[in-house]
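agent> step 3/5: call structure_predict on target 'ABC transporter ATP-binding protein' (Paenibacillus rhizolycopersici).
agent> reason: downstream docking stage needs a structural representation; sequence fetched in step 2, passing through unchanged.
tool.input:
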Amino acid sequence: MEQAVLTTHDLTKKYKEQTALDQVNLIVEKGDIYGFIGQNGAGKSTLLRIVTALARPTSGSVTLFGETSEAGLIEARKRIGAIIESPALFPDMTARDHLEYYRLLRGIPGKACISKALALVGLEDTGKKKARNFSLGMKQRLGLAIALLGDPELLILDEPTNGLDPGGIVELRELVKKLNRELGLTILISSHILSELHQMATKYGIIHKGRLLEQITHEELNEKCKKHLRIRVDDVSKAVAILEMELGTRDYEVLQDGTIKLYSFYHDVKRVSLALTHNNLVIEHFAPGGDDLESYYTKRVGGELHD
Ligand SMILES: Nc1ncnc2c1ncn2[C@@H]1O[C@H](COP(=O)(O)OP(=O)(O)OP(=O)(O)O)[C@@H](O)[C@H]1O
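tool.output (status=ok):
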């Protein structure tokens, strides 16, 4: 297993009657782009706020960079950069002014970090342009530059695409991937739209009504969403032989109940059905399967997902 950067242990947060987090055990490993996905009110911000000490848990604990004690966590949190509530931006200040302001506020020595952060987010050429004239995407990138000032190892972004136009979303996604690739940054990023996370995340945590329903890698998710034909016939062994001998494919699996999931020939249904019926097999079920991302997610949170 990769080294864990962040783990939560039965993390629970209650607000009077409301359970915002219910015994959440989440693991973010070094190098992950961890997509934290859940509907509005699922508990994402609450967890991120606890990790960054903006809120306290009712019970359970957080381990950051191996530290769980109060004193250890104070040190470990210095290795985090976060945008949870957007940082205050000042309309009359330039990008560089902002970074200087936040550098001093956080006591980070030396000005070199400013040019470095500006270059990382592509704002190095904004010169005298004031924040009031920045697009939303530029403001978002300035926020990122502020979060990157202290050379963090873990970057936490709470719903960073909220309010961005499609171009801004693509820009942010590419930036996140670049920071992960070039700086080796571990990134925990929340969203309520799975497809937005899908083109960058290496792993997902699905949270619903305060409970972490599933942690799944990018590959596992793709596997679950892979298009296939679901076939049930009266003689499974014979059908499998036909798939291999006549159609020349081994890209299938047989489930415990005898259903065959055929991953090839998805767009050539006729050829498959003809091959089976010509060999006197009785087709009991023959249908396309495989969710797209959003329907997988919807079913998962609806608790209706099978196999
Ligand atoms: N300070 C608070 N007082 C009372 N209830 C709260 C507080 N903060 C959050 N909650 C409740 O806890 C639940 C989880 O909220 P949270 O903000 O963590 O969800 P979220 O997944 O981040 O959603 P969103 O994207 O809408 O912020 C919600 O039902 C919310 O109403």
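agent> step 4/5: record observation. The first helix runs from residue 44 to 51.
agent> proceeding.
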